[in-house]
Amino acid sequence: MKVKLLLLLCIATFGLASCKKDTYIQESSNRTIVLTIQPNQWVIANEGRTITTDLEIPEIDQFNVDIEGILVYLDHPVNRDGYIALPYTYSGNSYSFEHFNSGIAIDIQRSEFSTQNPGVPTVPIRVKVVLIPSVDIT
Q1: Rounded distance between C-alpha atoms, residue 120 and residue 106, angstroms
Q2: 88 CB neighbour count, 10 Å cutoff
Q3: Which residues fall within 8 angstroms of residue 120, CB to CB, at 6 or more apart?
Q4: C-alpha to C-alpha distance for 101 and 11, rounded to whole angstroms
Q5: Alpha carbon distance 33, 128 (integer Å)
Q6: What pLDDT is recorded for position 8?
Q7: CA separation for the pair 35, 77 (Å, rounded)
Q8: Which of 2, 37, 45, 119 has the smallest CB count inside 10 Å?
Q9: C-alpha 16: how far from its chain's center?
C-alpha cells in the first residue's frame, strides 16, 4: 500500500512539475519611413559608372546600425505600384544601399556609361526604409 501511494505521489509530482508554462512577450514593432528621392538629388560618381544619393534619416541611430535590421525598398522601375527590395539587378543596373548613423546611401551601378544617357532617374522615386527591432544576445 505504501509503495502504491509513493508511486502515485511521484507521478503527481512529475505531472505538476511539467505543467509549468513560461510566456515571453516582446512588445516592439517595426518602424517604416517612406521618402521620395527627387531627380536632382542623384550624383554621378566613379567615372560615371555609379549614380548615388545620400538620404538623411534621423530615426537610424548607431543601435540600428550595429544590432537591428534595416531593409530598403525602391519604386519598381516598371510596375510603379510595387516596390523592389535592395540589393536588386535590373536591365544592367545594380541597385544597392549602405546604412550608417542617421541615414542611408543608395547606389545604382551601371555596366557601362554614356555621356548622352547618364542614367540619372528623371522621375521622383519612392523609398521605403523598414527598421526592424532586435535584441543582442551575444
Answers
A1: 13
A2: 18
A3: 39, 42, 44, 51
A4: 57
A5: 6
A6: 64
A7: 16
A8: 2
A9: 44
Short-list 3, 112, 120, CA closest to 52? 120
SS3 112: coil
The string of pLDDT tens digits covering residues 44-93 is 888 778 899 999 999 999 999 999 999 999 988 777 788 999 999 877 78
CB 64 within 8 Å of CB 72? no
How many helices (H) does the chain have, and how many strands (E)? 2, 9
| More confident: 32 or 48 | 32
pTM attached to this predicted model: 0.73
Rounded Cα distance between 134 and 63, Å, is: 10
CA angle, residues 122, 128, 33, in degrees to nearest 5: 120
Outline where 39-95 has alpha helix (H): 62-66
- Distance CA(48)–CA(20), nearest Å, equals 64
